[in-house]
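hey can u check if this looks right to u? its 155 residues, i copy pasted from the old doc so theres a chance i mangled smth
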Amino acid sequence: MPLYKSLVRPHLEYCVPIWSPHYQKDIELVEGVQRHATKLIDEVRNLHYKERIKKLNLMTLEKRRHRSDLIETFKIINGCYHLQSDLFFTYDEGQRGGHSKKLYKKCGRLDLRKYVFSNRVIDHWNALSDVCVTSNTTNQFKNCLKWELQLETHS
C-alpha cells in the first residue's frame, strides 16, 4: 500500500479537476488501476473490491476526485488563489434551503458544459452542510468533508 499511495495514486490524481473522466468506461478504466493494486495484497486478495478498499481504509478514486473538486472549490471561493471566484461560480440568490454559500448551476445547450469543473462540482458543493462550507481553514474543511463523505458511504 505505501508504494501504491506514493508512486501510483499521485499519477492517477494529478490535475484531476481538469481532466476528471465522465464516461463510465473511463471511470472504470482508472478505477481498474486501484482495483488491480489492491489485489496484489495477500490479506485481501480474495475479497470483493468494495470490501478490499474498506479493509485497506481507501476510498474509490471516483470519490477522491469528488473530494478534490470540493477542496478546489473551497479554495477558490475563499480566496486561496489569486483569481476571482466569479470567473468560476455564481452564488445562488434564490431563497432555497441549504447552506449560505449555495452556487448557481448554469444550464448549457450542450452536454459538454455539464462536465466542466465549475459546473460538475456544484451539486456536490450544494449538498454539503453549512458547517462544512463555512469552515475557517482548508484543513478544517478537509476534516469536515472527511466526516461527511463517511456519512454518505454508510447511509
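The chain has nine helices and no strands.
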